[in-house]
Amino acid sequence: MTTVALKAKDYKSGVKPIWCPGCGHFAVLAAITRALAYLELPKEQVALISGIGCSSRLPAYVDSFGFHGLHGRALPLATGLKAARPELNVLVAGGDGDGFSIGGNHFLHACRRNIDLTYIAMDNRVYGMTKGQASPTTAPDWAESKLTPHGTGVRRFQPAAIALAAGATFIARGYSGDPKGLTRMLVEAITHPGFSFLHVLSPCITFRPEQRSWKTEVHPFAAGPYDEPVEAAREIQADDGLGLGILYAEHLPVWPPHYQPSGTLAEVEREFLI
Amino acid sequence: MKSEMGKMRNTDISVAITGSGGSGAVTAGLILLDAAARTGLYGLMMRSYGPQIRGGESASLLRLSSGPVACMNDQVDLLVGLDWRNAGRFAQEIPLVAESLIMTDPAAGAVPRSFATSGANVSELAFEAHARRVENGRLNMVAVGAAAAFCGLPQGAIDAALQKTLASKGRKLIESAAACVAIGYELATELGDPERDLPTKPAERWNISGNEACGLGGLRGGVRFVAAYPITPASDMLEWLAPRLEQLGGSLVQAEDELASINMVVGASYGGIPSLTATSGPGFSLMQEGLGLAVASETPVVVINVTRGGPSTGIPTKSEQSDLNIALNGMHGDAPHLVLAPLNVPDCAFTTQWAVRLAEHLQTAAIVLSDQSLGQAQAVTDPHGEREILLERVTERSPTEEYRRYTLSGDDISPMTLPGIAQGMYTADGLEHDELGIPSSKAEDHHRQLAKRRDKIEAFDFGSDWAEVRGDGALCLICWGSVSGAVLEAAERLEGEGLSVRVIAMRLLAPLRRDALRQALVGVERIWVVEQNHSGQLYHYLVSRGVLPDDAKVLAKPGPVPLRPGEIVNAIAEKE
Amino acid sequence: MSNVLAGEISSLAEFLAHALEMEVESAERYAELADNMEVHNNLQVAMLFRRLAVEGDAHAEQVTRRCATVELPNIAPWAFKWSSPDGPESPAMEDLHYLMSRRQALELALHNEVRGLAFYAEVADRSPNPKVRQLAGEMAREEDAHVAMLKSWLSREYDDGTAPLGDLDPPNMPE
Question: With C8 labelled, which of A33, A128, B162, B252 sits at a CA distance of 20 to 30 A?
């Protein structure tokens, strides 16, 4: 193995992204490659797992192992890989639809498990790949989708608050328009031992052009990172959805615990003897 | 030619024990089975029960024989009623004839009409009254003694069985139980000597369930990762696997649902670790998309479907063979894969091991169709040693720049790299892709990759294990899975009546070995397909593939009651 | 002109590390933008960005030569001392649009080149280290030339004042 340090560019696969010019995901891709380079992670030890959607196209653009899996099922795919190969660096990428709608159940349990992987959810509050339907993080009165012409009328899913309630030990929110902050959070997230949830606001230029205004509306969390959930809950419940920073970081035992082998197959077979 | 099984079947006793409210019908059955095993008999035990979690009515159904047992007999020789509360529920599963014996406790009330109408002999034994003579005495132990005497089992064997089965309950309870058993033997002497022909020399036997055998097969096949969600009747397999996987350096993850389970095993397998999951019908439906992902990305995976009464929630505690259709065709798109089905309890180990090795080598999904009657049957069998299966996952450990994950080559099995192998990076995908794995919607990529995924399976030489073919004759019975036991026994009886019968018990259902099947049908003039479902799924599958003549017949009987050799014989004899 | 410098740069090595990062990032960014525009079939703008990427590579090469004898510090990606989210000379991806005109693309490039110039100018003005001030001054003058080049390209862009045509086709659903 070479000892020459890799640059961020070296982690790019060379496949040209199909994201629209103006998409926030480019900055997330850049932050990921920078973080990997900064941490000097060997490419063959990195696995990038995704589901379906614009965000989920990301693994193809990174020169690492990867699996572009089923809609909403990136977290279990990644969990199986990490449980079987704990020495790998496993990152999960997906969008708000993939992660919080069809993937919602897996999100809850991944937060509970505290498996050592990093989940990057790129949130643009819309279903971009399928032409602009409302997602769970879309405001109830957004009426631009033909599928829900009056708006969904349903309250927004709160990813960070739910991650906290579900027991995630690292919760942060970044913004594609703040690449420095995002890269730094990503480095912290990857190095955090346990499940790291990185919620990234990443505007969709095609279906939510008004999200450009996030540039002036984002702001740091009032405080943080908290290591105590009640205080963190107060912060996040008061949040307007545009607070940035590391909200929560706590060290708990990483799951699953690994046991040393203690027997042989022959011993197992002997159990059946009468 | 008489089969080996017929020659050995001198002793063949079927016993049923029913009771409720914690009376211990199941424990009684397990003790009898264990004792029979120590005597050198083979056996099969199933359980039936009501919907309650505890205290409900339950029944142990046993068949003990001097030859291997792979199905229940046409009738029960002895029915022991610990009590009769709601026992009528089991009437269909406890077929009695005039020659049968019912042991009943007068304190429990009259024998239910559904059993009494058989005309069976009734013997009144006051189990409860006698049990009260012993401190901590239990009436089921008195019944065990009486039943053991009926079966001709030596008391020493029962005592040894007690030691093992009641080990966790403490010495005092075991002593009380032994005392009750002794009383039971005494009571039964009134019935006379049963004159059973028992083996003279006990041999080494295994006591194993179908679910355990599947688990063992998985471990033998190299499985070291399982992710699963509990579901009846697969949960015991998972519970058996969890500590033993850990013992061997692997692990089991309890997933949040079946969608997570299948995706977790695909992920673990992508990482290079042979993996499987187990479920039943409803969970299997949920896994179809995940199975398709394994097929499209060419990631090995094994799913064991311990089938039960369907459709939908169906009959969770009863067996049925009605998931063949979904196993063959449940994935959307053209998704060639493997479907296998074990033929009996010991075969669960071999078939599962084979499925794992095949999936690893062919980089595809293998579905193993076990069922509740195999999974939850406790069988006393010969120890089944491991058969070496030399099929490996073709891995590229030193990829060059020219490496292509999905390269089109001679046998269409393209070497896989694994995470951790330098220069071996690729992104696996459910999207159609080119040889490099880059998503592609081009016609030639789609056609070529479809052909690759089909041809790697079709061109593989599965050898002779695709089916067990026995006997020779103009009449042929075709079956699969658990029904094979009853079919083979039916064939023996038909041969006893002078017919020549061939049996084809299929173990590999997909891909269909048409040439081998046609070869096996040479000389056959009349065909019956026998299966335990309503619509004749195997029959229609074989018809659709053009391997059955127009006049082939089907005996398709759905669950919840097992097919018995006698009813197969009758159905065929009627039409012969 | 807003304040582009977000902290004090006092050593030559640190300054060169910043300059190199700025130029390299800018060149890579233009290459990315060119790829993106090609994928979206805005070939006019793609060609422009491609040309700027080549220019950027040349600038980066120049800076690299200046760094030949200097041991550069390892600066974490978030620790560079410019106030902009990216390097001052890198156009932000979010400022793109698949239908943008060459004029708009040039305006974007000019805006960023001016910021690059401002960075050098501010360092030249405010660094406590005279060597740094001197070098920054030189590089500011080089930037001046780049800025002038872009301004002249821009002046040659024909602008008849009409708004660009919209896309008549609805969005696709690739997956």
Answer: A33
